[in-house]
Amino acid sequence: MKRLASPVWAVVAALGLCSVTHSVLADEFEKPPINYSKATPDNPVSRLEAKLAQGDVKFTYDDKVGYLRSLLSALEVPISSQVFVYSKTSLQRHKIAPETPRAVYFNDESYVGFCQDGDVLELSVADPQLGTVFYSVDQYNRATPTFLRQTDNCLLCHGSSSTEGVPGHLVRSVFPDRGGQPILSSGSYRIDHTSPLKNRWGGWYVTGTHGEQTHMGNLIFRQPEVREPIAQTEGLNVTSLTGLVKTTPYLSAHSDLVALMVLEHQAQGHNLLARASIETRLALHQEAMLNRELKEAPDHRWNSTSVRIRSAGDALVKYLLFSEEAELTQPVKGTSTFAAEFAKRGPFDKRGRSLREFDLSRRMFKYPCSYLIYTPSFDALPREMLEYVYNRLWQVLAGGDTTRDFAHLTAADRTAIIEIIRATKSNLPASWQQAE
User: Which of 3, 92, 102, 116 has the highest count of CB atoms within 10 angstroms of its CB?
Assistant: First the structure.
């Protein structure tokens, strides 16, 4: 969890001046070998575009939600993943308010944003080669909907230091006023699974129970400046949004607490996967140019390259193994079918165990290793990075690293994770299959 500087950072974000930071970082991923804006994407959305163009898939327009149902179905994004954000912190901020929140839906690779009476549906998707790629879909009744890839507009804030310096996602907790505008003087938090619950969900509706633990969801701040700690007496353990917001214009009445937790974990996980991929490819490209310039052997490995791979790889491994995860002090439970549907997707080992199995009493998952290891973005990591990550995972899980970063993993945790991964991953290196 990061408390973002106030008021400078908030003003920068609100005015679109993220480009100051973005311009420096974009110089890297807009050049070879990444060529972010010019490269041809290959991800679930780009493949869906091709199917629509060929007539293999057809969308149905709905007067209430436009192409939302068809899009979710085509991308296999569950309606149960729906969460509501009412802070004005996205592309169609003029459509967003506490009375008209933006609905977000997601699966392992794709995210879809829907606004009431919105001009477009907003999409972001994890692309194995490019990091996050952004699209919009016109919400007008046409024979075939129009997809438009977004680059500069989205990358102002989604290609900055807040997203690990790569095209990525940003989940924020803010202090919203009555109109949903973040109170700039109070700053905000950048959220992932390391964030304490008390700092999460400002500007989001939250349905679910969490005992005496507090959070910032379901609140409107009426004073011009918010001082912490917040005396949160409302909005806790809310199981229905009745009285808070009218949910009939949406596909579901829930903004599920467990879905929010998974979304936060996954968004930052995608950022770190993108960083691992892009940083490795940049390092190898620059190394190859240096070797040619200095007439070194093509396979000469510079220490700087190894350091860059190790740095990005270590950060990814720590995150995949839930290092520094915020502890739950009491059980949490959502209100929709999201948790049950998510857990059923597996894959499972012969004992019925899965990395998608929830704990939700003291931590998010029963076996603290992220299901993101099954995604195309993980499998498509450059060979040098994939080898490093697998070696570090093995080193940690086999008991060779019991330092503070991994002290939360018990011997039983480590053994179970090894057994589940061995049974459910088909492309493990030989060292994993042979080692005991």
Answer: 102
CA 240 to chain centroid, in Å, comes to 26
Q: Is residue 411 part of a domain?
A: yes
CA–CA distance, 383 with 378 (Å, rounded to integer)? 11
Residue 235 has pLDDT above 70, yes or no: yes
Q: Each residue of 312-335: pLDDT tens digit?
A: 999 999 999 999 999 999 999 999
Task: Count up the domains in the chain and report the number.
Answer: 2
Q: Where are the alpha helices (DSSP H) in 242-373?
A: 257-293, 303-320, 338-344
In one-letter notation, the amino acid at residue 332 is V
Neighbouring C-beta atoms of residue 300, cutoff 10 Å:
13
Name residue 315's amino acid: A
Rounded to whole angstroms, the Cα distance separating 70 from 119 reads: 16
Q: What is the mean pLDDT of the chain?
A: 89
Write the pLDDT tens digit of every residue in 276-322.
999 999 999 999 999 999 999 999 999 999 999 999 999 999 999 99
Cβ-based neighbours of 434, under 8 Å, separated by 6 or more: none
Tell me: pLDDT of 348 over 80. Answer: yes
pLDDT at 92: 86
Domain boundary among the residues 234, 258, 282 is at 258
